[in-house]
Amino acid sequence: PLRVVVLVSGAGSNLQALIDAAAGDGAPFRLLAVGADRDGTLGVERAATAGIPTFVCRVPDYLTRADWDLDLERQISAVDPDLVVSAGFMKVLGPAVLGSHRVVNTHPALLPSFPGAHGVRDAMAHGVRVTGCTCHWVDAGVDTGPIIDQRCVRVEDDDTVESLHERIKVVEREMLVDVVRALAADRSWQGD
Ligand code: GAR
Hints:
With 192 residues, the protein is an alpha/beta fold. The chain is built from six helices and seven strands; from the N terminus they run βαβαβαβαβαββα. Helix 1 packs parallel to helix 6. It comes from Fodinibacter luteus.
């Protein structure tokens, strides 16, 4: 199976979808560890409940952002994954992590529109009638790497940022599981 590390910052519902998909014999991928950038996340709790090792790397605990990046890379490399999945991880990854790992991210908008930390709010503020989610390879930019998959979601007249984000996340979880399964099935991206 594909060896996967997941990074989270919050609720971890995308992580939970991966945990569920990785459960059982014959699953095409395995979750080796879950990392977070803050304490007390439901995501880390979900991992612990599933018996998956966890670690936390908090930026304020390091002298510099570069030290944080190096330690995060060290924690990830300790379990030797094939793939890192950023699933609601709200920090921009640094050169140490990106230089040693292939990383995919999931984003709650149709990139290249509405990158950044507020994709759902920004799409609504623009008045789009269709939005969605994107899974992409992570490069040094913010939500700029090559797109792997996208799914769309219509905006309803009575949507709030919260209601729209919840509907996006339903589709997003399916997309993310499909993407990780596909990357496990076709390893041509490894060693690129
Ligand atoms: C997801 O919608 C993810 O796309 C978004 O945070 C949510 C995490 O939900 N990420 C970003 O906005 C990154 N810029 P979860 O913690 O329940 O998986």
